[in-house]
Every structure is written in structure tokens, then in C-alpha cells.
Amino acid sequence: MKKCPWCGKNVPTEDRICPSCGYDFSRGEMSSFYDQRQQKQAKSKIRHKNEMVIVATLAIIAGGSYIFNNQQEQTEARQNIQQTTKTISESSTVNSGSVSSSSSESAAKSSSAKKASSESKQAAKNSSKKAESKKSVTKSSSQSKKSEKKQTAKSSSSKTTKKSSTEVAKKKPAVKKQVTKKSSGTQLKANMQPNEFAAAVANYAAQKNVSKWKDVVNNSNNGILIKETTEPDIVNYLSAKGNGTVYVAFNSKDSNNEVVYSAYTINQDGSVNIYEFGTPDAPHTGNIYNPVETVSQQDLVKYLNSHKQAKNVQQMAKKVGIAHE
């Protein structure tokens, strides 16, 4: 690489002329070819500037002529408007004079016409008054007839309303009876499934404050187990054996110990013998236990329905399990 003495840029050693400034290393001066090229570039730049100046001047001239012509058109339009307004005002003054003369003539004619029309109106009024008087007489007579008809209709309607009110009053008690029946909600029936019947017996005994049956009901969250047994060790200790089967109730706490505290038997007529064991209040004669209470199925169902225990019995029945020995 070698350095150009004219522009100071690095130039390859094999190059004879500097590509940036055109310095000729062989002659030690600027190349004539490069001078001519620079002169052409300068001339082209000057020519381009002149062309831009010419275009700008032409654009300014054209814009000025357009604005000047537009202003002339606006002034001419204003003059035309002023002339038309003058002609209109002059014509209106002429027409007003002619209208005033014609209006005076028409006023005279109208006054005469008004007199004639007023006379005809009075005659028509007189005739209409006569016709109205006749109509008023006929209206009064028709109104009196209508009032009589209305009075008769009111009297008949009052009679019918009294009859209907009495009939409604008679029917109301029956409606009340129906509502009371519906408001009672779910009801237990005498024919129950075994698990529902066991839940009914347990709930009845608990409502009667039988202590061991209370324990069964209060601890029935995890279920109630009813064991059907015919073992002599249990049956022979009961005074009312029923059909020979004893239904022993266990709650979730004492079902594993299998200690008998509460049981019931069913007689042939469907009545229930309710027992409890292991308490000093349990009725017994020697070694034989007597029922705490014997109740028919109908009385048991009535008692539970009257004490609103039907829902509790139905919910408890879902937790009752029956086992056969």
C-alpha cells in the first residue's frame, strides 16, 4: 500500500492513479481525465439547480394567476348578487302599491258579504234552536226510561251477588279442610316395611322417654342393627312373647358388645310389645320381664304423625339394618 500525497488516502502499490482524487503517481500531478470528469459533474450540478429554479418560478407564477382569477370571479359573483337584490326590492315596492289598492276594494266587498252571511247565520241559529228543543224533550223521556231499566237491573244483580256470596261462604269451610290436609306433609301408614317399622318403634319408645330406646335413637348416626332371634335364653325371659321372634335393637356403640338393652315383639293382631333391660325401672316379675308398653300399630302411627315424626322415621329407616339368626 502507498499513500496518496494529494488526498492522503491509502492506495494499492500497483495502482498508477488514485481512485479517490485522480492523482497520477507516474507524473506526480493530477490526472487530466479526472479533471474533466470533475468539471462535467460540476456543470451537471449547476444545470440541475437551474432547472429546479425554473420549475419553482413557473409553479409560483401559475399559483399566483390561479389566485388572481379566483378573486376576480368572487368579485363578479358579489356584484351579480347585489344587482339581483336591488331588482327584487324594486319589484316588491311596486307590488305592494298594487296590493294595497286591491285590498281596499276587497275589504269593501267582504264587508257586504259579511252582512249577508250574518243574516243567514241568525236564521240558521233560530231554526237550530227549535230543533234542539225538540231533541231535548225526546232525550229526557228516553233517559227516564233508561234510568228505570238500570234500577231494575241493579236490583236483580244485587240479588244474584247475595246468592253467590252465600254459596261461596258455604263452600269456604270445605276448602279450608283440604288445605289443612295438604299442610300436614308426609304421613306414616300402618302397612310399613320392616326397616321403617323398626324405626317407628324406636322413635315411639324414645318419644315415650324409655331410656334404653333413647340411647338407640341418639346414637343412630352410624346406623341401627335389628337382630331377629328365637333363642330360648332370650324368648323365655319375656312375658309377652308375641309370635316367638324377638327383635333386638343395637345402636352403633353397643352392637359389638351384643348386650341386650332394648327389644320388641309383635303379637298376632299386629300390636307391639316394647321392652327395655338393664335398668332398675324395667318392669319385671322375678326373672321375667314385662313390656314397658303394648301399643297397636294404628295408635303408634297416629302418635308419630300427630307429633310430626314421620320425616324422622323415614330418615332413620334408611340407616336400619336387619339381621336374621
Structure description:
This protein has 325 residues and is of the alpha+beta class. The chain is built from six helices and twelve strands. It has helices at residues 32-183, 194-207, 211-218, 232-235, 297-306, 310-317, and strands spanning 2-3, 10-11, 23-24, 29-30, 224-229, 246-250, 262-266, 272-276, 284-285, 288-289, 293-295, 320-324. The chain has a six-stranded mixed β-sheet with strand order 11-8-7-6-5-12. Strands 1-2 form a two-stranded antiparallel ribbon. A hairpin with a 5-residue loop joins strand 7 (262-266) and strand 8. Helix 2 (194-207) packs across helix 6. The protein is elongated, with a radius of gyration of 65 Å. Residues 98-103 and 172-183 have low confidence and may be disordered.
Question: How does the SSE layout of this entry go?
Answer:
Blueprint: E1 2-3, E2 10-11, E3 23-24, E4 29-30, H1 32-183, H2 194-207, H3 211-218, E5 224-229, H4 232-235, E6 246-250, E7 262-266, E8 272-276, E9 284-285, E10 288-289, E11 293-295, H5 297-306, H6 310-317, E12 320-324
Parallel strand pairs: 5-12
Antiparallel strand pairs: 1-2, 3-4, 5-6, 6-7, 7-8, 8-11, 9-10
Unreliable stretches covering 5 or more consecutive residues: 98-103, 172-183
The share of residues in helices is 55-70%
Spatial separation of the terminal alpha carbons? 121 Å
Oligomer: single chain
Sketch the topology as an H/E string, one letter per element: EEEEHHHEHEEEEEEHHE
Structure classification: alpha+beta
Strand order of the largest sheet: 11-8-7-6-5-12
Radius of gyration: 65 Å
Largest sheet: 6 strands, mixed
DSSP strand (E) fraction?
5-15%
The overall strand count is: 12
What is the number of helical segments per DSSP (H or I, 4+ residues)? 6
